[in-house]
Amino acid sequence: MKRHGQGTDLSSGQRFVDTDDFFVGTKLDWWDRNGPMKKLHALNEIRLPYIEVETSRWMGTSSENSLKSLTVLDVGCGGGLLSDRLGEAGAIVTGIDASPDNIRAAKLRDDQRGFGINYLLQGVDQMENGAFDVVVCMEVVEHVDNLDQFLASCVSKVSQNGLVFLATINRTFWSLLAHKFAAEYILRWLPRGTHSWKKFVTPSELKNILRRNGFETCGVQGVSANPLSGSLFLSNQLSGNYMMVARKVRDRFEFEAQQPSDVERLK
Ligand SMILES: C[S@@+](CC[C@H](N)C(=O)[O-])C[C@H]1O[C@@H](n2cnc3c(N)ncnc32)[C@H](O)[C@@H]1O
């Protein structure tokens, strides 16, 4: 069911993404650290160091400045919370999103910050294949309608030996209680209907899609919260929020070519 609207192309009025994302259809104050985006601000404190460390590890870039001069595509960049930090870390960032309001908020922020981030109101299909060293897509995949197709498109933008970073919420009993009922109905951290639990994604589902598209998963890391301070930290607990990094090892068509054909399977 589409509750909140879909991304539309400003010039043509055409729908270009399949999503029921609350964040697409709602005007939000992205940069108020204590506002509705509080959780994403908290996540920012751990996801940027995670991306920096893993990029240095898997791409062999300097450990101090691992993102410097790398081209990074932030898919579903929202108001630019992560893009802004990636730009600050020296990356050449393109941020795309399905919502005109979000892109507007991101551009406004960058006018003040001056990192020269290229924010575009576009679907990922419209980006050039193989054009980015790193693609990040954080807190987005749990909203899209056709996950296989969406992820295949995201990872096709990564150059050979490049990386993709994903972050989402696992589909577990714990996430149903904590991320759906408690967050939306009891604690009211998120507006009701922000998430559909059925669309939460398990790490194995993501790994399988990545593998089919020529990517090898290098690491999966849980994100846990300190119940007293509310601060977030990396953990081995994968039942709620988690992040993943995967490396492009071959082209999708090479993977398909390696699979036994139906005829061979029947032999
Ligand atoms: C929860 S917000 C996350 C924003 C940002 N990635 C972050 O973590 O700070 C989800 C964002 O994904 C965007 N979005 C959802 N589906 C999308 C799609 N198919 N293509 C592009 N953007 C999409 C929404 O407009 C929204 O800005």
Explained architecture:
The chain has 267 residues and is α/β, with parallel strands linked by helices. Helix content is 33%, strand content 21%. It has a single domain (38-266), classed as Vaccinia Virus protein VP39 (Rossmann fold). The chain is built from eight helices and eight strands. It has an eight-stranded mixed sheet with strand order 3-2-1-4-5-8-6-7. Helix 1 (38-59) crosses helix 2 (81-88). The longest helix has 22 residues, at 38-59. The protein is globular and about 45 Å long. Residues 1-16 have low confidence and may be disordered. It binds S-adenosylmethionine. S-adenosylmethionine binds at residues 7, 17, 19, 21, 23-24, 40, 75-78, 81-82, 97-99, 102, 123-124, 138-140, 143-144, 150.
Instruction: Indicate the mean pLDDT.
Output: 85
Q: Helix count?
A: 8
pLDDT below 50 for ≥5 consecutive residues: which ranges? 1-16
CATH topology name: Rossmann fold
Biggest sheet details: 8 strands, mixed
**Beta-strand segment tally:** 8
Instruction: Look at the structure and give the CATH class.
Output: Alpha Beta
- Bound small-molecule species: S-adenosylmethionine
Radius of gyration: 18 Å
Query: What is the share of helical residues?
Result: 25-40%
SSE class: alpha/beta
Assign the CATH superfamily: Vaccinia Virus protein VP39
How many separate structural domains?
A: 1
CATH architecture: 3-Layer(aba) Sandwich
What is the overall silhouette?
Answer: globular
Order of helices and strands: HEHEHEEHEHHEEEHH
Share in β-strands = 15-25%
The side-by-side strand order for the widest beta sheet comes to 3-2-1-4-5-8-6-7
